[in-house]
Design a protein that fits this description.
With about 475 residues, the protein is of the alpha/beta class. It has three domains: about 150 residues, no CATH class; about 120 residues, 3-Layer(aba) Sandwich (Rossmann fold), CATH 3.40.50.720; about 190 residues, no CATH class. The chain is about 50% helix and about 10% strand. The protein has 16 helices and eleven strands. Helix 13 packs across helix 15. The radius of gyration is 27 Å and the shape is flat.
């Protein structure tokens, strides 16, 4: 009997399982290392001196050490994908994270310990690393092996739909169903597409106009695109829908993809499918980006706190209305959220409907011009960042009203929903505020360039250029 996995239940359970066993492994490894030190190293020095060693602090042993290692493992991205782990990548990830963690612990806790000779330092480091790696990897390997066996034996699987109802879709379905070792795809059904249908009509669960609703109602985690039309333009309407959902997307590669080398296979023995719509950041980079967002936002909020009180008074005394302005924007995977700003316009500025601000807009208050010029009005958005609705660097979020107009002219616009929207972006640095839809589309080109070249280094460059823009007063 196949058990369907969902993002909110089984994935959380699996992630907790890895975390709990990592904690057990960490404590076992640390205790084993203490025993080794007692027998092999401590016997060579005076016992009374060694008693002052920081490694004997029980608080560090039972509280500090586990938290330290869990942070290292989280930062590595290990817990991001609790299912379908590659044995090779798991080995490499565990090796690298335990090596880095052991190195940090060595310099923090062990380097100042009294030893008989300096060779004991080398011995302590090597043994510490080997113990941590061996114990942690053993527990991880056992969990991953057991889970992989259940997936291969079709005991567990995750909900999948196939977009397409032609010959190619039928071939993919037959290949997935006939595999001796399942890839984990529990095929819920087919989404009919243009062209002649070749699949059993009882397996077709809807058409393209129902795709979004089916993904949500059936808790779909993976979508396989297998349409017979080789025209890449036929994929764009599909992608624009999928950008608004948190699902894995795989497609059948065309000969052209193989020629240019643009294919990244995920399984050697599985069906010939390649990942699509992936963000060009690995799990480690995603976590570093999120950690930086939180720490930098907290720092900014602390620094601007003294400024907020007089600023709030000025906004309140110079014009009627609230201090803060909330506006609905479109965020990650097309989800709506409320962006926060210091109010820079008069109340009821959009009584006649949505209207973008212009350079000499009469709706902007006197203090509002200054706030917009130096981007001070954007500062409350660091709260959106801490809440996880935005990132510091990312495509600027637009209102749904304007997104629909942009999508009519730019069919690939939905690509910006692959990542969290940002307080600042490459488009804002290079182009600035947009005063109409056409200028939004021009700015979009820079956002697409960012997505194609996204990296932590690019984020840093954008942040530096943003600071220059703010300091020079070129915000508006």
């Amino acid at each position: 009997m196949e058990q369907r996995l969902t993002n909110h239940t089984n994935k959380k359970t699996q992630r907790i399982k890895y975390i709990l066993f990592d904690v057990v492994a960490i404590l076992l490894a640390w205790a084993s290392f203490l025993i080794f030190r007692r027998i092999e190293i401590e016997s060579n020095v005076f016992h009374e001196i060694q008693l002052f060693s920081p490694i004997y602090n029980l608080e560090k042993l039972f509280i500090g050490i586990p938290f330290f290692w869990l942070f290292i493992f989280w930062l590595s991205g290990y817990y991001n994908t609790p299912f379908l782990k590659s044995r090779l990548s798991e080995f490499a990830q565990t090796f690298l994270s335990t090596l880095i963690g052991s190195t940090i612990l060595f310099f923090i806790l062990l380097l100042n310990d009294p030893v008989a000779n300096y060779h004991d330092y080398y011995l302590a480091f090597i043994v510490q690393f080997l113990i941590y790696f061996t114990v942690v990897y053993f527990f991880r390997y056992m969990i991953t092996r057991k889970t992989t066996e259940k997936i291969h034996n079709r005991i567990i699987g995750f909900n999948t739909i196939i977009i397409g109802s032609g010959e190619k879709a039928q071939q993919i379905y037959d290949q997935l169903q006939s595999m001796k070792q399942s890839s984990g795809n529990f095929i819920v059904g087919f989404i009919s597409h243009e062209g002649k249908s070749e699949v059993d009509s009882s397996l077709i669960i809807g058409g393209m106009d129902q795709l979004g609703d089916i993904i949500e109602s059936q808790h779909i985690e993976e979508v396989i695109i297998a349409i017979d039309n080789d025209d890449r333009n036929a994929l764009m309407p599909i992608f624009n829908i999928l950008y608004n959902h948190d699902v894995n997307v795989r497609v059948t590669p065309q000969l052209y993809d193989y020629i240019i080398g643009g294919v990244r296979m995920t399984s050697i023995f599985g069906a010939p499918l390649v990942k699509a719509m992936d963000v060009r950041l690995n799990e480690f980079e995603k976590n570093v980006k999120r950690l930086f967002d939180i720490l930098f936002s907290c720092l900014v909020i602390v620094l601007i706190a003294p400024l907020c009180v007089p600023l709030a008074l000025i906004i309140k005394l110079t014009s009627e209305g609230p201090i803060f302005y909330k506006q609905e924007r479109v965020g990650l995977h097309g989800k709506l959220f409320h962006i926060l700003k210091f109010r820079t316009m008069v109340c009821n500025a959009e009584e006649a409907g949505p209207q973008l601000a212009s350079q000499n807009d009469l709706r902007i208050t006197k203090i509002g011009h200054i706030l917009r010029k130096y981007r001070i009005d954007e500062l409350p958005q660091f709260i959106n960042v801490i809440k996880g609705e935005m990132s510091i660097i990312g495509p600027r979020p637009e209102r749904l009203f304007y997104e629909r107009q942009i999508a009519e002219k730019v069919p690939y616009y939905g690509i910006v929903h692959k990542v969290k929207p940002g307080i600042t972006s490459w488009g804002m640095v290079k182009y600035g505020y947009a005063t109409d839809v056409n200028k939004m589309i021009e700015r979009l080109r820079y956002e697409i360039i960012y997505l194609e070249n996204i990296s932590l280094l690019v984020d840093l460059k954008i942040l530096i250029y943003t600071v220059k823009t703010v300091v020079s007063g070129r915000g508006m």
